[in-house]
Write a structure and sequence with these properties.
Number of domains: 2
Shape: globular
Number of helices: 8
Largest sheet: 4 strands, antiparallel
Number of strands: 4
Structural class: alpha+beta
Length: about 160
């Protein structure tokens, strides 16, 4: 883990090469980051992750900033090929951001939600009894953006 000198609210995880690359990109592309509130910063970081294909994990105040492109690509893959095509990244996103428990493993999650209809129902009512979109705190703008697109894809 490495704190970003430009903005100590940001921590980077990954290999030294991934961290160094992410740090250089953030410093060169988002010099105004320290002046942004969390909602703005999360969206700016998410767009940078996707546009520059950043490999390092980026945390803002201890909470992951998620790749929109990657989660949406993974959801489309699941819709097209079935729940068994779920990636580890999507599984982590579901358990860390969408109101699901881990179910011990990705295969345990898929066993609990074996069809696209089950996935759709999960987004309507997660394991905390609320719609995923309303479960997410307002400051988690990167995740809200992802869920809005997932709901569109799943026709919720």
């Amino acid at each position: 883990m490495q704190k970003l000198e430009l903005d100590n609210r940001i921590a980077l995880y990954g290999t030294k090469k991934e961290i160094d690359s992410a740090e250089q990109l953030i410093i060169s592309q988002l010099q105004e980051l320290p002046q942004m509130d969390e909602r703005q910063a999360r969206l700016a970081l998410q767009r940078l992750i996707d546009s520059k294909k950043i490999k390092a994990s980026i945390l803002f105040e201890g909470n992951s900033v998620w790749s929109y492109d990657r989660v949406i690509r993974d959801i489309r893959k699941v819709v097209k090929n079935g729940m068994n095509s779920m990636t580890d990244y999507l599984y982590k996103w579901l358990t860390l951001s969408a109101g699901s428990i881990a179910h011990y493993s990705l295969s345990g999650w898929v066993e609990t939600y074996p069809t696209i209809q089950h996935l759709k129902q999960f987004f309507k009512c997660n394991e905390f009894g609320s719609r995923v979109l309303t479960h997410i705190p307002a400051w988690k703008t990167d995740t809200i953006r992802i869920v809005e697109e997932i709901e569109h894809i799943l026709e919720i």
